[in-house]
Model the fold of this input.
Amino acid sequence: MSKLILSEKQGLHEQFGEKEEIGGNHYRSWVGPPNYYDLIGATQFNLLTLFGMRETSTLLDIGCGSLRGGRFSIMYLRPGKYFGLEPEEWAVQDGLQSHFGKEFAERKQPTFVYDSNYTFTKFERKFDYLMAHSIFTHAPEKQIRLCLSEAAKVMAPETIFLATFFESLDGTDYTGEEWLYPDIVRFRKSTITSFVEGAGLECQHFDWAHPFNQKWVAVTLKGNMPDVKKLLGGYIYSYEAALERRANATTWPTSPTDNATAK
Ligand SMILES: C[S@@+](CC[C@H](N)C(=O)[O-])C[C@H]1O[C@@H](n2cnc3c(N)ncnc32)[C@H](O)[C@@H]1O
Done:
């Protein structure tokens, strides 16, 4: 597991990758169209907070890339609460350097594992939230199943795992065995559900706007799905929710997985 080693690459701040091809060797274009880098990050963060992510929560960002979404969570979460897994170390380091610089990045203490086998247990802990944005949009069945079964090992009853995929347009599923990028792959909703259930988990598909029409799915341990409609309606920000919190012993947010280890 690696801590911070900020990239020495020069010129990161000179431009925002406007002229770069998707999938190119620039921290912004690596993860998608550079002109949507801001919105695609913001939508992930907004959704996490709608689902109740507080500053004390722990987040595992699966395939975190250059921290397009991760930068907002790293900023919001308390130090040491953000965890990212990504095969491409350069993308993470260039993201850290570009978004934060050395001092702020070190203050927020994000932890990274550079891995392409979805071995989330390397973090040796469980998480309150898991995010896999634009991973199942490129991954073959075998990898999605592996991701879900490894995710189950680091999930607690309260954990919410949010993921996106591209929905099939013709009733068929991607049957190739390769990760396709920047090409995309498509699956039926029912196929994604069967992958989730195959990992012993449960899921709920839901509508949440996405600039490229990626579809969202919430995954939890069996029997632990929250009221997704209520959460998407902004319940977490409501006065009603605040009153409910005040009725409890403490109004300070907690992390149910704070001391939960995973092997
Ligand atoms: C489309 S980008 C999405 C990045 C990030 N989740 C976001 O939304 O900004 C896909 C990312 O998945 C990473 N990736 C590729 N193979 C992976 C694997 N086996 N496990 C985890 N991430 C992988 C890529 O390096 C890339 O950073």
Q: What stands out?
A: The CA atoms of residues 17 and 251 lie 43 Å apart. The mean pLDDT is 92. The chain has one domain: 40-247. The chain has eight helices and eight strands.
